[in-house]
Structures are given as structure tokens and as C-alpha cells.
């Protein structure tokens, strides 16, 4: 019975995330997107997201692992709710296209000051080169394996891409937004995170 309650809770949170995605997209298009910057424990946020997604992952017999650079501070200043949103979308996407496999969330430090890199890697079906053109188009899904029966409306990646872009200070040139690459076992999505510690929040523009 507890499993049914947890599954219902997970689905309600996913629905809330979808509604938030749609609202955020409208704010981005209207130029009214604002960050809510605060100090938080990034490691704990990711662990909480993994716990949330575990039930859905278990249904596909997938395992989720976190690899957090031991030399990297767990405390950062950014918009934890947007980061959580991106992670939910990316992990959910990996679960859709992975069966009896593994999903890895990897957090590392970049060479540039205050730059962190977050990767979501899976051992799923992968993405063909011609399909990558559809990734950031609304209501597009990768139909590659009927056995996986992917669900969803196809908004997650395009909204996550916009969120990742807006998480970064606009006056800093960087390759922001979602990046999609292949690796030897499946697909990896990554984005850069800027740590606003010791930085005036007004400087985000």
C-alpha cells in the first residue's frame, strides 16, 4: 500500500513539474523570467530528486547513481527550484528511453571560476544524429523503440534548455543551455551551472 501512495505522490509531483514548465515557458517568452537566488546544498537537492524519481525508475528496472566531485563544495548559490526542475525533466527523459539500465548524475567543476557542470547520462537507446534536430522543439518526442513506450508531451527538453540558459548571468559569455552528446553506452545531457556566491543578485542581467 505504501508503494501505491509513493507512486501517486511521485505522479502528482511530476504533474506539478509539468505545469510549472508551461508557466516558465510563458514567462521566458514574455521576458518576465526571474531567478530566485539563495544558498543551498546542491548535493542534497540532487539526492532528493533521485529519491523522487526512484519509483518511476524502478518500474523500468533502472538504477540511478550520483557521482559528485569530492573536491567540489556542496553549497552553491543559484535558483534551486529551476535546477530541480531541469533535473526532474532530464532524469525523467532518461527513464523513458532506458530499460533495465543505469542513469548517472555527474557533477564536476569546470575550468572557469564559479562554473559547475551537471551531466545526466543513461544507458538507453541513444539518439540518432537526425533526431537531435527535434530535441528542443516543443511537442517532439524520439520514437525509436516501441517497447519502451515513452510517455509525455515533449516539452521537458525545450523548457529545460531555456531554464539552463536563464540560470546563467547574461553578461558572461559561455556555451550555456543544454548540450546533447553520445557516449559509449547511450546519451548524455549536460548543462553549466553558475555559482552566484559573493555576487550581487542584480548582476545576473
Helix/strand layout:
Elements: H1 2-29, E1 38-41, H2 42-59, E2 63-68, E3 75-78, H3 80-96, E4 102-109, E5 115-122, H4 156-166, E6 179-183, E7 186-194
Parallel strand pairs: 2-4
Antiparallel strand pairs: 1-3, 4-5, 5-7, 6-7
Helix pairs in contact: 1-2, 1-4, 2-3, 3-4
Domain Histidine kinase: 1-164
GO molecular function, one term: transferase activity, transferring phosphorus-containing groups
Keywords: Phosphoprotein
Give a verbal description of the structure.
The structure is a single chain. The protein has 205 residues and is α+β, with helices and mostly antiparallel strands. The protein folds into 2 domains: 1-34; 37-194, Heat Shock Protein 90 (2-Layer Sandwich). Helices cover 36% and strands 21% of the residues. It has 4 helices and 7 strands, in the order H-E-H-E-E-H-E-E-H-E-E. The protein has helices spanning 2-29, 42-59, 80-96, 156-166, and strands at residues 38-41, 63-68, 75-78, 102-109, 115-122, 179-183, 186-194. The strands form 2 sheets. A 5-stranded mixed beta sheet has the order 2-4-5-7-6, with helices on one face. The chain has a two-stranded antiparallel sheet with strand order 1-3. A hairpin with a 2-residue loop joins strand 6 (179-183) and strand 7 (186-194). Helix 1 crosses helix 4, helix 2 (42-59) packs parallel to helix 3 and helix 3 (80-96) packs antiparallel against helix 4 (156-166). The longest helix has 28 residues, at 2-29. It is globular, with a radius of gyration of 17 Å. It starts with a helix and ends in an 11-residue tail after the last strand. Mean pLDDT is 80; it is low at 145-150.
